[in-house]
Design goal:
OM_adhesin/peptidase_omptin, aspartic-type endopeptidase activity, about 270 residues, about 5% helix, mainly beta
């Protein structure tokens, strides 16, 4: 339902702007990225429950292929990995500081319409469907056992890429995203039975500014600073078990992730 809404809104925006379609080329890119990762979980009263902060290096790649006269089909991939600082508490309120090994995997497909307005403004409107996988390995300490958590969700997205002119070196990319069927799987390192909780996906988004330099007729260098935001609502409260016997209750708190960084990559077009 959410993805259908994005497609309908994309078609509506295309129709309300005066425009002409312009031809695009097939392209592919590959590069690396540095992300400043900042994740926060919140208590029921809105106060901070725990947070994770650190630098995640990553790799990225993508391809774009024209589909007919009016549309482009694009694919995006990224992977980030490193350990970060964990500072917070257990659900019972015990203070807890450690390190967390993070692995973030993201894959998205987008359908784009490239348009040139009568005022020479170039923009692409697009809708997409993506998949996000996050492996979060919270390390044990001498007093507290760690957790291994796996978050995953599909997401719909609606966005626009805008350039002041056809020859501009700058492109602004803004997109709204909404997680679909988000969940978390928790491994308690043998203390309790594994548990899966459904999460309440909330409106999220991303903003980037890409600067590009033409290295040759078919090769571009691109530097793209970005800001990314994910919001997941609180899960329902579920039973916690050990060897199949109920020993308590558990829920996943509301969380917000605000990342910023820069992507550096080469794009080849033909």
């Amino acid at each position: 339902m959410i993805f259908s809404f994005y497609i309908n809104l994309l078609l509506f925006l295309i129709l309300i702007f005066p425009h002409q379609t312009i031809a695009t080329d097939s392209s592919a890119y590959f590069g690396f990225s540095i992300m400043d990762f900042a994740y926060k979980e919140f208590r029921e009263d809105g106060g901070l429950f725990n947070r994770e902060d650190g630098i995640l290096p990553g790799i990225l790649a993508g391809v774009t292929k024209p589909v007919g006269q009016w549309w482009d089909l694009a694919g995006e991939f990224s992977y980030y990995s490193n350990d970060v600082n964990y500072n917070g508490q257990t659900q019972s309120g015990f203070p807890f500081e450690t390190r967390t090994d993070e692995k973030l995997f993201d894959l998205a497909l987008q359908l784009k319409r490239q348009i040139k307005t009568s005022g020479h403004l170039n923009y692409k409107l697009y809708a997409g469907l993506g998949y996000h996988l996050w492996k979060r390995d919270i390390q044990s300490t001498a007093t507290v056992s760690g957790l291994f958590e796996t978050y995953e969700w599909w997401y719909g997205q609606l966005g626009a890429k805008v350039a002041p002119s056809e020859k501009s070196n700058w492109v602004v990319d803004f997109r709204l995203s909404h997680p679909i069927n988000a969940n978390i799987k928790i491994n308690f390192n043998g203390l309790f039975d594994d548990k899966k909780l459904n999460l309440n996906g909330q409106l999220s988004g991303r903003l980037s500014f890409a600067w590009q330099a033409q290295l040759s007729h078919s090769l571009k260098f691109i530097a793209e600073p970005y800001l990314e935001y994910w919001h997941l609502g609180r899960s329902t409260t579920e039973t916690l078990t050990r060897n199949g016997q109920t020993v308590g209750h558990i829920f996943e708190p509301q969380s917000k992730t605000l990342n910023y960084g820069i992507m550096i990559y080469l794009m080849y077009a033909k």
